């Protein structure tokens, strides 16, 4: 997977607008699930055929503290540690401020990653002349643009992708076998589960340092399994990181999720589903990866009723709706009880990702169904769906429905089609994409 680009800067310089402009290229494909808290702080973007991730670090920093300087320092440090390129955004309307100087001071010490200085809000040509004062920051030429109306963004994007590290996309070392990532909040039991797989038998694991900084692929061949475990290098416990474990672990998860085929999301049974679990879940969804939810520490849950597993499962699906078609495994990393079950389930999900339904079967099933339950008419126009087919390819199962008026088919109907697909064929744990196209 490609590079991670981080956006930093003081509040109100237009970081979110720039973020939205960078990521909107993918909006057609990426579903923005509402209800996930800090959703807009992470997105996928593409320019000239190069895919990259964008994080708006401001969104990961808690604004409640009145200690402003510290908050900005915190987000700049996150960007320096976790990204490949840093975009430092300043505002030509208000001009240079002390906070800008403070950020620049930290960034000038950064030798490993390129820093691009973005002079935003140059909404007219005249405004662009005000950018000259930002040379005082000592970060080279300011790149003048307007995130809101898009002027100057094309040249900026060309420059941005030219700075990417070409080695990051090279994954030739890895064979075509499944890649599983174990993700979850800190202390949900990720490392104990990884140790339970890998454990004392270090010999059976061949480590390949991931070409993408921070992802380590361990090859696991034992008990008839053969897969890579994508492990993000343990979250660094530096003094300053302690209170930021939340942000770091989410940004680390981004790397692991992007490099995996199936994600095993660890949930702590003693704590239930928390907002950070929701964040990680939405990252898995956005990247269209397979999912197995693993409820760990089940042995520690007290007063279990006979139906408590069922109740807990329902609670999880309830939080993750509308995507509810995924397997849930209850494990205990301590007693190693159903750990292999988790891996077996992940392998099944991986196989379902490449499951292909013939066009003939699809049309035999869907055309009569659609005739009986057509999409609702809009403005007196009736939508007719004539033909359906599944695309071949390495991505998540993707189905194209050809219609006379594709723009009138709304999300609820697409969800209806997806539910019918899922109830007829087994796609448990794997995301499905449905596109309506012009016939």
Characteristics:
439 residues, alpha/beta, 7-stranded mixed β-sheet, 6-stranded mixed β-sheet, 32% helix
Q: Which secondary structure elements does this structure contain, and how are they paired or packed?
A:
Layout: E1 4-8, H1 15-23, E2 42-47, E3 50-56, H2 68-82, E4 85-91, H3 98-108, E5 115-120, H4 125-128, E6 143-144, H5 153-162, E7 179-184, H6 190-198, E8 205-209, E9 215-222, E10 225-232, H7 245-258, E11 262-268, H8 275-286, E12 290-296, H9 308-320, E13 328-330, H10 339-353, H11 359-372, E14 385-390, E15 398-403, H12 411-424, E16 433-438
Parallel strand pairs: 1-3, 1-4, 4-5, 5-6, 7-10, 7-11, 11-12, 12-13, 15-16
Antiparallel strand pairs: 2-3, 8-9, 9-10, 14-15
Describe it.
The chain is an alpha/beta fold. The model is unreliable at 25-40, 200-214 and 233-243 (pLDDT under 50). The longest helix is centred in the first third of the chain and has 15 residues, at 68-82. α12 links the parallel β15 and β16. The strands form three sheets. A seven-stranded mixed beta sheet has the order 8-9-10-7-11-12-13, with helices on both faces. α2 (68-82) packs parallel to α3 (98-108) and α7 (245-258) runs parallel beside α8 (275-286). It is globular, with a radius of gyration of 24 Å. It has helices at residues 15-23, 68-82, 98-108, 125-128, 153-162, 190-198, 245-258, 275-286, 308-320, 339-353, 359-372, 411-424, and strands at 4-8, 42-47, 50-56, 85-91, 115-120, 143-144, 179-184, 205-209, 215-222, 225-232, 262-268, 290-296, 328-330, 385-390, 398-403, 433-438. It has twelve helices and 16 strands. Helix content is 32%, strand content 22%.
């Amino acid at each position: 997977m490609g590079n991670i680009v981080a956006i930093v800067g003081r509040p109100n310089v237009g970081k979110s607008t720039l973020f939205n402009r960078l990521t909107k290229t993918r909006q057609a494909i990426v579903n923005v699930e509402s209800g996930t808290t800090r959703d807009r702080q992470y997105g996928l973007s593409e320019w000239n055929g190069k895919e990259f991730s964008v994080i708006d670090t401001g969104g990961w920093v808690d604004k409640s503290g009145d200690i402003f300087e510290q908050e900005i320092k915190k987000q700049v440090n996150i960007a320096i540690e976790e990204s490949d390129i840093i975009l430092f955004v300043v505002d030509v309307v208000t001009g240079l401020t002390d906070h800008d100087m403070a950020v620049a001071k930290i960034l000038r010490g950064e030798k490993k990653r390129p820093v691009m200085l973005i002079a935003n809000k140059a909404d007219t040509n005249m405004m662009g002349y005000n950018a000259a004062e930002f040379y005082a920051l000592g970060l080279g030429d300011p790149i003048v643009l307007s995130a809101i109306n898009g002027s100057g963004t094309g040249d900026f994007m060309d420059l941005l992708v030219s700075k990417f590290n070409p080695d990051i996309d090279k994954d030739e070392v890895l064979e075509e076998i499944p890649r599983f990532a174990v993700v979850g909040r800190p202390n949900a039991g990720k490392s104990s589960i990884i140790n339970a797989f890998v454990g004392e038998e270090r010999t059976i694991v061949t480590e390949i340092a991931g070409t993408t900084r921070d992802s380590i692929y361990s090859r696991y061949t034992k008990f008839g399994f053969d897969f890579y475990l994508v492990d993000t290098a343990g979250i660094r416990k530096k003094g300053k990181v302690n209170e930021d474990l939340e942000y770091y672990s989410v940004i680390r998860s981004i790397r692991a999720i992007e490099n995996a085929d199936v994600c095993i999301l660890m949930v702590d049974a003693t704590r239930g589903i928390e907002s950070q679990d929701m964040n990680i879940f939405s990252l898995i969804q956005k990247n269209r990866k397979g999912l197995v939810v693993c409820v760990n520490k089940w042995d520690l849950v007290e007063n279990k009723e006979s139906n408590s597993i069922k109740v807990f499962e329902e609670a999880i699906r309830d939080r993750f709706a509308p995507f509810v078609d995924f397997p849930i495994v209850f494990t205990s990393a301590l007693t190693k009880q159903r750990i292999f079950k988790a891996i077996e389930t992940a392998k099944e999900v991986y196989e379902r990702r490449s499951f292909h339904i013939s066009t003939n079967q699809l049309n035999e099933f869907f055309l009569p169904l659609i005739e009986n339950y057509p999409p609702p008419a809009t403005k007196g126009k009736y939508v007719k769906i004539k033909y359906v087919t599944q695309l071949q390819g390495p991505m998540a199962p993707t189905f194209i429905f050809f219609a006379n008026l594709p723009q009138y088919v709304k999300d609820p109907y697409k969800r209806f089609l997806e539910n019918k697909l899922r109830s007829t064929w087994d796609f448990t744990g794997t995301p499905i994409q449905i596109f309506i196209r012009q016939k």
